Amino acid sequence: MMDRPITGGQLKDKSLFQDSDGTAVPAKSICHSCSKLKIFLGALAFSFFAKGFSGSYMKSMSSQIERRFEISSSIVGIIDGSFEIGNLMVMVLVSYLGPRVHRPKVIAVGCLIMSLGAFLSVMPQFLMGRYNYERITVTVDNISTSVSACSPAASGAHPFTDATETPSAMKTFGCEKTTNSYLWLFVLMGNLLRGIGEAPVMPLGVSYIDDFSKEENSAFYIGLVRSSGMFGPTLGFLLGSFCASIWVDIGVVDIDAISINPKDTRWVGAWWLGLLICGAVNFIASLPFWFLPYSLPKEGENENLKISHLPVQDDCKVDPPAQPQLKFSEAVKDFFPALKKLFGNPIFLVYIFLTILQYNSLVGLITYETKFMEQQFNVSVARAIFLIGVILLPITILGMFLGGFLIKKFKLHITEMAKFACITFIVAYLLNLLYFTCSCEVLQVAGLTAPYSGLKHLSKNSFMASCNADCSCKLDQWDPVCGDNGITYMTACFAGCKSSTGTGKNMVFRNCSCVEGQGHGLGNSSAVLGQCQRESCTKAFPYFLALQTICAFILALGGTPTYMIMFRSVSPDLKSFAVGIETLGGRVLGGLPAPIYFGALIDETCLKWGTKTCGGSGSCRVYDTKAFRNVYLGLIAGLRAGCCLLYIVLSVLIMKRFKPDGKEMTDIKNTERSTSKESATANKNEILPGARTSEESEETWYLFSLRSCA
Questions:
Q1: Integer Cα distance of 708 and 710 in angstroms
Q2: What's the whole-number mean pLDDT along residues 379-398?
Q3: Rounded CA gap, 2 and 308, in Å?
Q4: How far apart, in whole angstroms, are the C-alpha atoms of residue 612 and residue 132?
Q5: Model confidence at 331, in pLDDT bands (50, 70, 90)?
Q6: Is Magnesium there in the keyword field (predicted)?
Q7: Could you tell me the maximum CA-CA distance found in the chain, to the nearest angstrom?
Q8: 472: left (phi over 0), alpha (psi -120 to 50) or beta
Q9: Closest by CA position to 370, among listed 124, 589, 65, 130
Q10: What is the pLDDT at residue 290?
Q11: Mean pLDDT value across residues 660-686
């Protein structure tokens, strides 16, 4: 440091600060620290946007990934959970290191890793070749262009092809590349890398802002960054909707010749296209952080520098904060007493169990929401994703902000917040039970859920009937057609169709013997490609969507007060530790297992599995919609019933501990008045449990929104 006086002319040439690597920082650069802080704020806001954008897009593409790789819902759950695994692998280390590392550069590395993970997930698209969806084998009439699905020689005939494959390609593709069955591991590893890369963004970014901004500006900056990041999930779902409506091999095949549409369970959208965009966005997000310094002078502080008798007029100048020196042995020694103190707090203990159950219900709901809409209400995956991004997500964000506004506006005490959160959750839960009334009939599939025409009862797996006994149909095929009688047949062969007209999506099968029994004259029965539409399901969907929107808003309204309960019920010195324990418990016991067991139970409701090119079952083609609804909604309702019970217990505990007219309440108010005149350091030792400064309240009501949208 300087040990001699500096004249005014020398000020511009002398170094006042040193960076972490010992290099001198000119005095004139001190003023630029304020602008650098603003640059950091903008860069961090964009990185929050980028990670929310990528995370929501991956959630929206779960159905497309399931179909492209012909995997079950439980494996999709494992892929989804790999993000949590990667995040948890480094979260504790990153949080512990904190200011001991060059935070901007670590965030930059994290964004690059997220970008690498997105690009790695795209690799299978270029290794697997074109997507060949499941179709029936038909014979071509030598005299005309008519094709016959029902023929004794069907099993040995040449397959009917469309634009997605050619006979030569089929010969070379075949079962040679059996490793294609495991290419979904690229997506899993890419998602794992995304989790690793995202870990440092929030803790290091928020701590960097808090260290170098004014105390009165810190909460505003953090809230601004988080609010900007909330646009990411909305745009991610919109991009997912767009990509899901585009054929997976866009630009390679003739789209007009494809015989399926986005409502078909074999349709695969361009899932990889959005990942390229996500990777590029994350790469761009990393660039500004490489040019930001290790540390900055404290914003706005006006301290005298050690310059002999020289008045300094710049408000930005201040000594760099001393880096904390914490020995590892001391950290370990304090860890277990702090943990014991936290879990010795009954309010915090109940709150942790509540968080775990909420994580389970929320993650399970989000992961399989698009599949549920598709199976129950004849809604294409692209439309379901679009509705989530345009309606449900914005209304949820609005509810969270309104909940935080009510806390600040009415200055709710912890007892009032507990009552408010409990009431809103129970109301939302009761409305949630109305989901079961939005019932929809099971898809009538001949041989699966409905008997063939002329038969009164359905016997198990009665795929064959007298009307198609001579057709040599393959039992493992799924290329549904809708007959004139309103019944769906697994293939045109099972419908007994003898001829057809048209090509591609416009193909109509004629002379279908299994359809003739429903009052149709001989030779007049027909079937069209695709499943039969269920009109009652389509009519029920708007009511379901309106109910879901109301429930999402009410849940979000009480979400912010719920999250604030944790901050106001633990000691000030344990707040950061409490956040870490809450995040760890929620992700390990909620975010990680929920997609897996939700997916495994949903798989149990499958009626017809697809078949891979090389044999073996692929993704599910059709579900028992009634069983699917009971499993999916039943799991959510069961988890939230446990949440209702814990909310009541939590409210009782809080009202007993924080009595509005009791001595503790009076002490809290007195402490709050005194803390407005003291420094934040002194507050840690003097504020009683339950006390909060207005700045802290303004900051923390944003936290719940990040957890829900990340």
A1: 6
A2: 90
A3: 10
A4: 10
A5: low
A6: no
A7: 110
A8: left
A9: 65
A10: 93
A11: 43
User: What residues have CB less than 8 Å from 333, skipping those under 6 apart?
Assistant: none
Q: How far is CA 189 from the centre of its chain?
A: 17
Q: Give the contacts of 366 (CB within 8 A, at least 6 positions apart).
A: 59
Helix (H) or strand (E) holding 203: helix 201-212
**377 vs 263: CA distance, rounded Å:** 11
The whole-angstrom distance between residue 61's C-alpha and the CA centroid of its chain comes to 10
Nearest Cα to Cα of residue 595 among 74, 86, 87: 74
Which tokens hold the place of 344? 């010795």
Amino acid at 659: K
| CB of 31 closer than 8 Å to CB of 299 | no
Q: Read off the amino acid at residue 698.
A: E
User: In the predicted model, is pLDDT for residue 306 greater than 60?
Assistant: no
Q: Is the pLDDT of residue 423 over 90?
A: yes
What pLDDT sits at residue 32?
A: 55
What does DSSP say about strands 497-501 and 488-489: parallel, antiparallel, or unpaired? unpaired
Residues sharing a CB contact under 8 Å with residue 507, sequence separation 6 or more, in sequence order: 259, 500, 501, 528, 529
Residue in this structure with the two tokens 């899901």, named with its chain if needed: 244
Adjacency order of strands within the sheet including 497-501: 488-489, 481-483, 526-529, 508-512, 497-501
Helix (H), strand (E) at residue 407: helix 393-410
* Residue 70: φ, ψ to 5°: 50, 55
Among 357, 333, 287, 280, which residue's Cα sits nearest to residue 590?
357
Q: What percent of the chain has pLDDT over 70?
A: 72
Is 478 exposed, middle or buried, given 0-12, 13-18 or 19+ CB atoms closer than 10 A? buried
Give yes or no for residue 313 having a pLDDT over 80.
Answer: no
Enter the tokens of residue 259: 């015989």
User: What's at 285, amino acid-wise?
Assistant: A
CA–CA dist 400, 415 (Å, integer): 19
Query: Any idea of the CA torsion for 223, 227, 228, 231, to the nearest 10 degrees?
Result: 170
CA nearest to 279, candidates 54, 504, 18, 551? 54
Non-local (6+) Cβ contacts of 635 within 8 A are: 361, 364, 598, 601
pLDDT at res. 327 = 53
**pLDDT computed for residue 55 by the predictor:** 92
Eight-class DSSP state of 662: S
What is the pLDDT, as a whole number, of residue 674? 41
Global pTM reads 0.77
β pairing state of 488-489 and 481-483: antiparallel
Please count the residues of the chain: 710
Determine the Cα–Cα distance for residues 272 and 430; give it in Å rounded to an integer.
Answer: 39
Q: Reply yes or no on whether the pLDDT at 111 is more than 80.
A: yes
Instruction: Choose among 540, 551, 301: nearest CA to 425.
Output: 551
- Strands 526-529, 508-512: pairing is antiparallel
Q: What is the pLDDT averaged over residues 440-467?
A: 70
Mean pLDDT of the chain: 76
For residue range 482-531, what is the model confidence (pLDDT) as tens digits? 888 888 888 888 888 888 887 777 788 888 888 865 554 455 688 888 88
Instruction: Choose between 486 and 272: higher pLDDT.
Output: 272
Q: What's the CA gap between 685 and 572, in Å, rounded? A: 8
> Taking a C-beta distance cutoff of 8 angstroms, is the pair 67, 247 a contact?
no
Does position 614 have pLDDT exceeding 80, yes or no?
no
Q: What is the pLDDT of residue 101?
A: 82
> Mean pLDDT across the stretch 341-355?
92
Using the structure block, give the residue that is written with the tokens 């602008």: 35
pLDDT of residue 36: 82
Q: Measured between alpha carbons, how far apart are the two ends of the chain, in Å?
A: 44
Taking the C-alpha atoms of residue 388 and residue 580, their distance in angstroms, rounded to an integer, is 29
Tally of helices (H runs) and strands (E runs) in the chain = 23, 11
Answer for the pair 237, 57: CB distance below 8 angstroms, yes or no.
yes
Q: Identify the residue whose tokens are 């099972």.
A: 494
Tokens for 649, please give them. Answer: 């217990």
3-class state of residue 441 by DSSP: coil
